[in-house]
Structure formats: C-alpha cells, structure tokens
Amino acid sequence: MAVSLPGALLARWCLVRLRRGEPAGGASNSSGSTPRAGPEGGRGARRSMASVELRQVRKQYGQTSVIHGVDVGVRDGEFAVLVGPSGCGKSTLLRMIAGLEEISSGEILIGDRVVNRVPPKDRDIAMVFQNYALYPHMSVFDNMAFSLRLAGRPREDIQRRVEEAARVLGLGEYLQRYPRQLSGGQRQRVAMGRAIVRAPQVFLFDEPLSNLDARLRVQMRTEIRELHQRLRTTSVYVTHDQIEAMTMADRIVVMNLGRVEQSGAPLELYDEPANVFVAGFIGSPAMNFLPARLRRTPDGVEAVLGDALGLPLEGCELPDGSALTLGVRPEHFVIGSGAGLPAQVLGVEPTGADTQIFCRVCGTPVTVISRERHRFEPGGMIRLTPLPGKTYLFDAAGGQRIPTRDPRRG
Ligand SMILES: Nc1ncnc2c1ncn2[C@@H]1O[C@H](COP(=O)(O)OP(=O)(O)OP(=O)(O)O)[C@@H](O)[C@H]1O
Ligand SMILES: [Mg+2]
C-alpha cells in the first residue's frame, strides 16, 4: 500500500517555484480538526523565512500549570524538533506558536514580531497534524485547494499548485477521492500537500508520521528532511520518538514535564547530555545507569561501583562518599574475562550487524552492544569495563551531570 514519495521531485518542484519568485501564498493556519485559511500572507512578495522565539512562555489550565517558563529559539531556516515523553507539553507549545492556544504569560515571536495577540490566520504558518485534520466531506483536491480559495487566489493558480503538489506527493490519481477512501499514509500526504501549497514562513508539524507504518515512517522522514534541506523553511516538528528527532533535526529541544531539559544539535545532546533525563532519552538502546559512590584516596578520586571497580576521575569536586550515577552507553563497554565489572548474562540478541547482550551488573540491568558475534549463554558470567573517557557521571540526587575528566583518556 505504501506509495513511494518522490522527495527529490518534491524538492525540485518547490525549488522551481522559488526560482520563479512566486508569491509566498496564503500561508495560514489549519486550526485543530477544522482547518481554516486566512488572507494572503504575502501576496506579491518573495517567500521570506522567519525565526521563532519563545521567551519565558507559560501555560496554565485553571490551576494546573503545564508549561513552566520555556525559552526556545529556532533560527531562520532551521529544522527544530521538540521531543519528550507523552504529556510533557510538546503539542501545547506547538499550538501556542500556531496561536491555537493562548499563552498564560511570556512572549512568542515569529521573525521580529511578537505574535501573542496575532490570530492564527495572520501568523503565516502551516501546521500538519497527526490526525490529518482533513475535511471529510471534501475531495482531496478541495482539501488541498481550500486555503488557496479562501485566500482568493486565481483559479488556474490553484489548479496548478494543487496538481503539482499532488503529483510530487504521489496523489495524482486520488484527487477526486474523499479522505475516507484513502489509506493513512495517503491521508497524511494530503495533509502535507495542504501545508505545502501555501508556502508559509514556518511549518509546524505535530507527530505527522505516527499513524504510518514503520516503513512508510522511515521513508517519509527522509522525504521531509530532504524537502527542508532544499527549501530551508523554518520548521518546528514535534515527536516523542527520539530516533525521528536524531535523524531529522538541525536542533533538538528535549522537554520533560513542561520544561526544556536541554537544546542542541543531535550529536551534541548524545555526546554531552546535561542530565540523566537527556542522557537516558537520547540514544537507543538507552544509556545504562549504575549506582556508584565517590571515593577519595591518597592517589586521587574514583567512582566505585559495588565493591568491584574503581574508575579514576579527575576534576570532581564532590565530597568523599557522595552518591553518584555512572552512565555508560551500550556501545562503550569492553567485554573481557579478566578485569572489569562482573556481569551475569541474561540474554543475547544478534541483530546481524551487531549483538545486544543483556546482563545484570551489581543488581542493575545493563545492555551492551558489541560488533562481534558473541555466543554467551544465559546465566554465564562476563566482565565489562567502560571505555576510558566514555563514561558520564551524574549527581544521584538531582540528576545533573558532574563535569569530570577520566585520566585514563590520557
Ligand atoms: N485543555 C486542557 N486542559 C487541561 N490540561 C490539559 C489540556 N490540554 C492539555 N493538558 C495537559 O497538558 C499537558 C501537556 O499536554 P500536551 O498535549 O502538550 O502533551 P504532549 O507532550 O503533546 O503529549 P503527547 O506526546 O501524548 O501528544 C498534559 O499533562 C495534558 O494533560
Ligand atoms: Mg502531543
């Protein structure tokens, strides 16, 4: 059922339009489950892009506070991904940028304009939702043409834009169908097409791929990314899937419980997580966390795991006996039989390219990834040594990363 989406074509199409210097179009918001469109955002103007900035944005529903002072800056042309667990406030934040939710306090800027009081239709944004938000009683063509018609664009222009979008999205044969006659993937493409025909200043995506099957999801994320690389339209993309965030983002904003935990380039977050939450959220399989204790000896400082292993540390200011959490990524263990942490093998899963080994270390479950094809038996004992310079230390109480240097790194 998965129709292939010719992303290169889509990008080329958009590029051609940009080269022609076509107008920005009636980019407007498709609010909630009933898409709306507004007046022409920039008729006669070349497409302009815009930054998006949130300053100390808060949201309360009655007495319940769900967004607690968020600062986020998305640069002009950037593809930013808001990622975090369910209920952390991603959709709320996106809907506040769109103007579909009022903000309780703070400021939202699109470009250099504070839009707190600007209605959604005048924000020059287009939003793509998880639930597609298509008009059930309208054909695919009419769904895609809707905002352009409201914007009063000439008939031939609408025809051309919709047909071009439909062709590159692989929807050419479906223009006269109704949403109920389409698969989930096809409906999602209609929703994408409806946003694309408007050529807005900012795209907002709320989990647009989560109703698609795994293969189509991977394909669509590449296509969206490719499209963005050509168009460079500022985009804010919400997902709870950290792989989607890692593969698509110029910058990831990790949220938790209505706050931003950290923001940065994907590999920056992977290599330098600010706290346990980010360390555990970014990366799959997740980072392993082992309870440890700081020990000061005449020779220096070390993190001690159980009675088994002391990892030398430098630059750690905490007092002797402090409770720590040691973080080690699954790919950062050396497997041996002599020195190292004793680990009981619970299971082994070869995936072809590498092998995942599930163990128990000092009572804690640990996942190890190895490029070698080990044939350990469940119940067997192995030894694990974290790679020098690849461990992370966190304050066990607050979860904040403790800056240290591993002297084994040399
Ligand atoms: N209208 C509302 N009234 C009260 N609380 C609300 C309302 N809308 C959302 N919330 C609460 O705000 C919090 C954030 O919700 P939001 O939909 O932004 O989460 P999310 O990160 O998008 O989650 P998901 O990944 O499940 O979509 C949740 O705790 C939710 O229950
Ligand atoms: Mg949501």
Structural notes for this entry:
This protein is an alpha+beta fold and 410 residues long. It is built from nine helices and 20 strands. The strands form four sheets. The protein has a six-stranded mixed β-sheet, with helices on both faces. A five-stranded antiparallel β-sheet has the order 13-12-11-14-20. Strands 15-19-16-17-18 form a five-stranded antiparallel β-sheet, with no helix packed on it. Helix 1 runs parallel beside helix 6 and helix 3 (140-150) packs parallel to helix 5 (184-196). The longest helix has 18 residues, at 214-231. It is elongated and about 80 Å long. The model is unreliable at 1-46 (pLDDT under 50). Residues 90-91 line the site of magnesium ion.
Secondary-structure class: alpha+beta
Heterogens: adenosine-5'-triphosphate, magnesium ion
> What is the overall shape?
elongated
With strands numbered from the N-terminus, the spatial order across the biggest sheet is 6-7-8-3-9-10
Q: Provide the low-confidence segments as ranges.
A: 1-46
Strand element count? 20
Biggest sheet overview: 6 strands, mixed
- Give average pLDDT, whole number: 84
* SSE string: HEEEHEEEHHHEHEHEEHHEEEEEEEEEE
Q: What Rg do the Cα atoms give? A: 25 Å
Tell me roughly what share of residues is in helical segments.
10-25%
The number of helical runs is 9
Task: Using brief descriptors, characterize the structure shown.
410 residues; alpha+beta; six-stranded mixed β-sheet; five-stranded antiparallel β-sheet; 9 helices; 24% helix; 31% strand; binds adenosine-5'-triphosphate; binds magnesium ion
